[in-house]
Specification:
The protein is an alpha+beta fold. It is about 35% helix and about 20% strand. The chain has an eight-stranded mixed beta sheet with strand order 1-2-6-3-7-18-8-17, sandwiched between helices. The protein has a four-stranded antiparallel beta sheet with strand order 12-14-10-15, covered by helices on one side. The structure holds zinc ion.
Length: about 450
Amino acid sequence: MIEQAYQYIDANRARFIEELKEFLRIPSVATDAKAVDACSRKLEGALAKAGFDAKLMPSAGNPMVFGVRKGQGPVVLVYGHYDVMPVDNQVWQSPPFEPTERDGRIYARGVGDNKAQHYAHIKAVEALQACGLPAVPLKIILEGEEETGSTSLPGFVKEHRDLLACDVCYAADGPRHESNRPTIYLGCRGVIGFELSVRTSSRDVHSGNRGNVVPNPGWRLMQALQSMRDDSGHVLIEGFYDDVRKIVPDDVRMLEALTFDGKKMSEQLAVAELNGMPAREYHERVMYRPTLNISGLVSGFTGEGIVNIVPATATAKMDIRLVVDQDPDRIVACVRRHLEKHGFTDVELTVHDVMKPSRTPSSSNFIGPIADAARQASGQEPVILPALGGSIPQYAFVEGLGVPCIWSAYANWDEQNHAPNENMVIELFIQSIKMSANVFHSLSQG
Ligand SMILES: [Zn+2]
């Protein structure tokens, strides 16, 4: 009975938290080779302890931690990532790599995104094993480059198709729905991270001595940006919306079951227009519509005070969130064509990272049992989202292995991932272990 596993999890709560903290002390930013090495080895050990045949596998980038474990029923592939976001100059209340408990939460970089979430799967398997409860045959893959765009993952999945072959992919990442009910989602938006830059002279010049004769790159770049989007937010790039998949009755059914507290979010973010936004509109915008976003603008002097110059360059950091079935290459081509057509041949486009959008059909047979597991482990009705607004490398599994992919968000909705004071509610970490145990056990029961 699954209750036995729940009891084991409750009885070992303190140890699980301590183990998680050890893991959080490793500053495994993707570019930190030493920490990546330490973290991947530690995970390999944790998998072996939970009965996996575990090994580190080389990839084009950081090593993949891979484990396989026998069982009964459909083969489940579990995915997670052990790399964390850098902390830069962010101000933290407690040091980011010294996990600290406050108000029932653990504060540490990478706790929600994604260490506690995949550690929950490993501890779930340990609990089932300790209680002698059957589980599905499991394969687990943990990558070390998610925060830098999972660049090696799609190639790795294709190359190791047989090794990773499975019936379904189940993974945990991201924050729960803002109601903090258990959250299951079936896909994600994709993303193209890119820069647009203009150079108008060889160097910065005095704005009095050369103003009006040397062109200003800031104005030039703004004109290019203005040409791409109207005041209502509609993107004017030709072809941008061509492949956006139509909303079908199944989507409408899911969308209409979702709630949204616009008043609360409006107060938290100090964004008045969110107050009163209908739930359907909010979710449709976040899950079913693409964006064209300016994430940073840089030109000239940006320190304190004023320096009177005409700068030589201006750069806009941008991202486009893609929805199914938009193809990143095709959208980049549309942006290039737009710049050309509107005479902005001096605006240079550089693509950084790309992730394709992906969505598992709402008719998948695995959704029901996973939702039941969430209900039983939490005592709450799960929220099922057709997609996540953010981007995760689901397409690597859906395209590479041809299987459905279903996600749970194990972290609290305000986990502050990528930001200072990233945290995870301890109770939710424990509940997540129970949910994974329930998923792996119940699917083995046919
Ligand atoms: Zn992240």
